[in-house]
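Our collaborator T.R. sent over the components below with a one-line note: 'Predict the complex.' Nothing else. No constraints on interfaces, no templates requested, no preferences about which chain binds where. So this is a plain run: every listed entity goes in together, and whatever single assembly comes back becomes the starting point for the next discussion.
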Amino acid sequence: MVTLYQNKVIDQLRDALKKKKHMVSVTVRVGQIDPLSFFAAGETLFHGQRFYWSDCFHEHTLVGLGHAQVIKSEEKTKKRFREVEKAWQQIVEGAFIEGEGPLMFGGFAFDPMKRSAEHWSHFPSAQFVIPKFLLTKRGEETWLTVNVVHESFAELEKMIDSLFIIHDEIDSYDVEVVEKEEVARDRWFHAVRHATDLIQDGEIEKVVLARELFLSFSHRIDRSHVLCSLREQQPMSYIFAFENGSSCFIGASPEQLVKKNGYMCETACLAGSIRRGHTMKEDEELGQWLLKDDKNRREHAFVVDMIEQAMHEICTEVIVPSEPTLLKMRHIQHLYTPVQAKIKEGVSIFSLVERLHPTPALGGFPKQKAVQTIRDIEPLDRGWYAAPIGWVHANGNGEFAVAIRSALLEDNEAHLFAGCGIVAHSDPLSEYEETNVKFKPMLLALEGGRR
Ligand SMILES: C=C(O[C@H]1C=CC=C(C(=O)O)[C@@H]1O)C(=O)O
Ligand SMILES: [Mg+2]
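Returned assembly:
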């Protein structure tokens, strides 16, 4: 099925390629296409090379298919942020751009110094991709960007045609859990007690400890179905998926790391949690309790203080509300303080990410000691969990979320991750319960249910 815009994109590409630049990026306006159908349309041709992103308002959605170029870093230090930035600048400088321009999507490992698990082997210290096909939906408008490095027209035409085959609604999904294991449960409890000892001895003030659930299912996990459930069930979260080889990192995170739009930037402090109530009255009472609870307010205050300080170093006009409010997701409510600022001249989105990661909502406080403590006592490899994931446009704008409430999928298996902020008066059992609530969004989406 060849439509008007498919012809248009091919014609524009034909002209653009005459410019003999390293990469050609052409964007055309297209009609209404559901981003998830587009993701599903890439299943055969681009399996292992797809990504999906939608922001927490579900107003800005990106779907990438295929790899025009890939930026990878195995650098174990902060240099990885600059390596990625440099490689991206070179690509943008060498590109011929017609229309919106290319963007890249990808993420970073939480702590490249602690890499051990085989299941994370497809996910390096940093990896970003410039897709061959990028669908962008903002509000009611949709664009298709085609990025070409070395591709024949015949191949391109074939690919484009295959992407516009209309897919039926993604319907219900029948899978059963055949195995469920709480990975290193006892060692996690031990780590929490160890952390509270360190805090009480004054060694450290806060540390976030994560645990892992391993699940295997009766059938291969269908990534489009999981995204569809997440999109339906978590309307206030960033929805993301990043395929790499046979693995896919996927999730629905309520936590923004940073957004840059020209000179303006936003970030958010999200820490301190309680479940949702069964009735409106109970929900309201739980929320009020959370707003006043000392232990949760401490967890939250570390994040606000660190982010405020980091922002003052690279921004001006930093606005931080004096009191947190509640951010209510389907299963959980959090203490939430949004932050806005004006970025100083020359500060890129990469420097913002480098400065902020990991905030005390994911690492702890002080930062270096917290990361070292996690490295020493947490019984798992976080891989890309709790690390920055997001996009950067050729114009320097971009947005990153913190990849929590997430899972790593391979075939019929899933590794789920959830953590909690440990402070002086943390009770191991309540922290354990808190992580159980944080597992729920992914569990529900994987099981395909509607609880
Ligand atoms: C580390 C996670 O959550 C963080 C974000 C919000 C609230 C948190 C908390 O209350 O402990 C955590 O700091 C996770 O979901 O895996
Ligand atoms: Mg907590």
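Summary for T.R.: The chain has a mean pLDDT of 93.
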